[in-house]
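Record 1 of the preview.
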Amino acid sequence: MYSPVFRNRWIALAFVLFMAMGAAQLVGDENDAGVISQAAEQLIDQRADFARQADELSADTADVEAEFAEDDDLIAAEAPVTDEPDSFSGFDPVPDMAEPSRPDRGISPDEMAGSEIVIVDGEIQIVN
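->
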């Protein structure tokens, strides 16, 4: 992939300089923080903001005392529980499938015991 780039030394030199500049932008130097350092600082700032907001929200709700209902009260307030299943109504997604057709040839299973079934051109033939 890089073979055409490195056939000409000037193009190869430009490629190496371009890669070095990209790495310097990512890492940075002592005067300027790189992209990676800036991203890390933003993450630290966001984490501190999130922790501060969480503390504010939890401080607001810490004074509230929750009252929970007893199970008996909940059961009495609801409709009586029945053992009957719900009556389901609506669209039935199961397709209607017809029973497979079996031609009635008037042959009993005893008569079929020694016979062979041959299918020729979609026709079922019973050979004794």
